[in-house]
Amino acid sequence: MSNEHCIRIDRDGHVAEIVLDNPDRLNVMTLPGFFHEVRDAIREIGADDEVRVAIVRAEGRMFTAGLDLKSAGASFTGADGGSGASEATRNMSLYRTIRDLQDCFSEIERCPKPVIAAVHGKCIGGGLDLITACDIRLASADASFSIYETKIAIVADVGTLQRITAIIGKGMAREMAYTGAFVDAERALACGLVNRVYPDREALLAGARELAAEIASNSPLAVQGTKMVLNYSDEHTTDEGLEYVAQWNSSFFRSNDVVEAMSAFMEKRPPKFEGR
Predict the structure, then answer these.
(1) Residues 114 and 227 sit within 8 Å (Cβ to Cβ)
(2) Residues 75-126 pLDDT 10s
(3) Distance between start and end Cα atoms, the chain
């Protein structure tokens, strides 16, 4: 287990940035430290009423080189089960580790606040697991993406295969997963993996912050409710989704933010939402 600190949180008004901050090691995902830090950061942001939107970005020359194979070696070989452990015990230990890592990135989906991934440089392996759990993905022109796990003889197991088909479609998802080949920013934009491509990292960060500020200017109750309804509708029928949103709006329609929106409209001024 690595004791490196891989993540920091920067705050600016209603926007928080979760920064992958281990550039000397290409922001590798140490096991389990990196994953636990991501989960802790997301939970902290989710519980902070001042934060309305989060951005995930990285320092250094790339977003992430993916899983740190050195720190993952013990889990891959089953050594974490103990020197005298049976094969079944080692297998169960690895199973529990995988489920824990999956939960860390699933926390991004569970976060009530929208999460924007801003990707520059390479985004390899576990990086796809992370960004496919985000609500929105943006990239710089030098970004490239690889579901690299097949290149190292394993199956991607922390969320990419479960999420990416809904984002880019079956054919493209399978091509990326079977080949492990890198997809450049232009093709990522064409297939819907990213929403926008910016000329360079500086423009990417400016664009991500502008988008986050635009989202944060809306009612946080409405934005968070919309995320919950969208997530619910992904896994339920249309009728079930309609029932869910009807219950949501009937519960929150009398919020102070709704009153403020109506008043601002009548007074021809920008609304000032407080999330109440």
Answers:
(1) yes
(2) 565 555 556 678 898 889 889 999 999 999 999 999 999 999 999 999 999 9
(3) 43
Q: Which residues of 237-252 are buried (b: 16+ CB within 10 A; e: fewer)?
A: eeeebeeebeebeeee
What pairs with residue 16 in β-bridges? 11, 54
Q: What's the number of CA atoms in the CB half-sphere (13 Å) around residue 68?
A: 20
Map out the domains of the chain with their CATH numbers. Answer: 7-216 (3.90.226.10), 220-267 (1.10.12.10)
E-only strand ranges, 112-252: 115-119, 122-124, 136-140, 144-146, 183-184, 196-198
Q: Tens digits of per-residue pLDDT, 223-268?
A: 999 999 999 999 999 999 999 999 988 887 777 776 666 666 676 6
Bridge partners of residue 196, in order along the sequence: 138
Query: Cβ contacts of residue 191 below 8 Å, gap of 6+?
Result: 168, 169, 172, 183
Our measurement of the distance from residue 25's CA atom to the centroid of its chain's CA atoms, rounded to an integer in Å, reads 21
Report which of 164, 58, 41 is spatially closest to residue 107, judged by C-alpha positions: 41
- 214 CB burial (10 A radius; 0-12, 13-18, 19+): exposed
**Confidence (pTM):** 0.92
How long a stretch of residues is the chain?
276
